[in-house]
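Summary for the lay section of the report: proteins are chains of building blocks that fold into shapes. Here we show the chain for 6-phospho-beta-glucosidase and then a coded description of the shape we predicted for it.
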Amino acid sequence: MQRFPDNFLWGGAIAANQVEGAYREGGKGLSTSDVQPQGIFGPITPRKDGDFNIKDVAIDFYHRYPEDLALMAEMGFRCLRTSIAWSRIFPKGDETEANEAGLAFYDALFDAMASHGIEPVITLSHYEMPLGLVQRYGGWQDRRLITFFGRYANTVFKRFGHRVKYWLTFNEINMSLHAPFTGVGMAADSSAQAIYQAIHHQLVASARAVRDCHAMLPDAQIGNMLLGGIVYPLSCHPDDMLETLRQNRQWLFFGDVQAHGSYPAYMERFFREQQIQLEISQQDLADLQHTVDFISFSYYMSGCATADPALQQRLRSNILDIVPNPHLPSSEWGWQIDPQGLRYLLNLLYDRYRKPLFIVENGLGARDVVAEDGSIQDDYRIRYLNDHLLQVAQALQDGVEVMGYTSWGPIDLVSASKAQMSKRYGFIYVDRDDDGQGSLKRLRKKSFFWYRDVIASQGASLQAGESRP
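The coded shape description reads as follows.
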């Protein structure tokens, strides 16, 4: 097979709230993640002294990042996608002065990455925001959050711009439709009017961050980040085709606004028919015209859509409720495995936006077993990643411009959906269980050496021929 481009960004992706721990160290304030001890689909639980939240320690990346970065460098990582915890920089969210201890932590982290030749890819808001902004303002439904986010973004641009060339605004921004508290700091039973108004404020904040990044850091690139929730028609019936179009537009709309700079006509029709009247100023419309440099996205699975109510037997998988595809196998957690879907999605996004694409999450959550000799034989993970990367190679040959690939969870971390350690993604095993027990010792899995070889060979070591677990 053809090698991947020489400048391809190979690496992995993590998130502050799922790896750092140290949830009250260094002046950090409480975040929305800190009151979701059972994950983004669990209840909102006010903090009490002695309460258990596995994310309070997570994998202790806050203290152990030198060891973890050394292991990633051993694999040959050229980049690492991570996030800045907003509440480390502005503990309550609405302060006028940043928390120096929080800034200093990321100074040290990015300097350590530079020492290994690992390029930071930084998400400004990844499934968390300062809890104070929810308690005082009701989350993103309040327009003032645009200003607060702008202050935070400009602070980190100024502080870290000499180290960070790649920025993302909001992680999986379209997930607010499925988990509003995680996305926009609002209750799950909030009205569609309120949620879309909050989403509008977030889109404006994202566009202003793009504007400011371009002004402050002319050599940097800033993109958006979508949850790639692609669905296929369950049948070729015209009703299923139109339902598929409708469902895909629900999430593509976020990319359309951020890449094209305005609301698409189909969303204007949706708002009219749902009697949603957004408050949009002329300044908002001008701000939205500051469009992203590249499109980044996650891809784990595909699904199906049908207009037939009798066939809409839905399963909770990933963040989306989807109709399962009868032609695809599933992981232990019910996530369907569709490597070709990644090639399809890459082509769809490139045709739609004509901007560089960055695959910033892709991986397989599975229960790993440590053998008596300390080895972890995770061939199922190797098969999954191998088959997906082969499809990326196909997309490159299709003419799609792909910047890079960062596998999700190169080191085991706390899962977002249910706050589990047992759902492991990493090339690096972390000795900790769902009850918080374990030594936190790091171990190299079989996939560690496999990914090292893939990077070193620029993809030439990938095994042709799709294999199914």
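Put simply, here is one thing we learned. The chain has one domain: 9-456.
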